[in-house]
Amino acid sequence: MEIQGRIKQIFAPESVGQNGFQKRDLVITTEEQYPNDIIIQFTQSKCALLDTLQVGQRVKVHFNLQGREWTSPQGEVKYFNTVVGWKIELIQTTNVAQQTQQYQQAPQGYGQAPQGYTPQRKYRNKGNHNTSKGKFLTIWGNEKGNSNNRNSMLVFKFLSNH
């Protein structure tokens, strides 16, 4: 299983019991309409996965869900769940507007376009659209020089509102 969110807190490694069992907790906040703070436990050698992370970073955490039964000294049976992380990935955020601007400018070292050159595609930004399935950017374009005068559509889905 996996979950995505923004790091809220990284706890220091902790030694539990007399056998030197190591654990380290991470709290991430999900980026949903109703955000949740989820605590994820990393154990033994996996504790080191958190060493280079910082509060505020967006991550994808791969985990296993574990459950156990516990009987109190009074004989009452209780059940507990633990979210145990085993892999973590940074989610790189990119700004579509910045990327578009970068691609519109010629790389350094390239001269002007040849005289008489006409770009083969012209795109029109149709704007951002909020739907029940997320926020989208739609761009329409047509391909010149094609006898069908074919239209193309590019759709970008924003994974986060941030």
What does the secondary structure layout of this molecule look like, with pairings?
Elements: E1 2-10, E2 14-16, E3 21-29, E4 37-43, E5 58-71, E6 77-90, H1 96-104, E7 121-131, E8 134-143, E9 151-158
Antiparallel strand pairs: 1-3, 1-5, 2-3, 3-4, 5-6, 7-8, 8-9
Question: Summed up, what is this model?
Answer:
Helix content is 6%, strand content 52%.
The CATH superfamily name of the largest domain is Nucleic acid-binding proteins
- As residue ranges, the low-confidence spans are 97-106
CATH class of the largest domain: Mainly Beta
Strand content: over 45%
Oligomer: single chain
How far is the N terminus from the C terminus?
Answer: 24 Å
Structural class: mainly beta
Overall shape: it is elongated
> What's the total number of strands?
9
Mean pLDDT: 77
Largest sheet: 6 strands, antiparallel
Can you give the helix content as a percent range?
A: under 10%
Supply the number of structural domains. 2
Continuous helix count? 1
InterPro entries: DUF3127 (IPR021474), NA-bd_OB-fold (IPR012340)
Protein name: Domain of uncharacterized function (DUF3127)
Biased composition (Low complexity): 105-120
Region (Disordered): 105-130
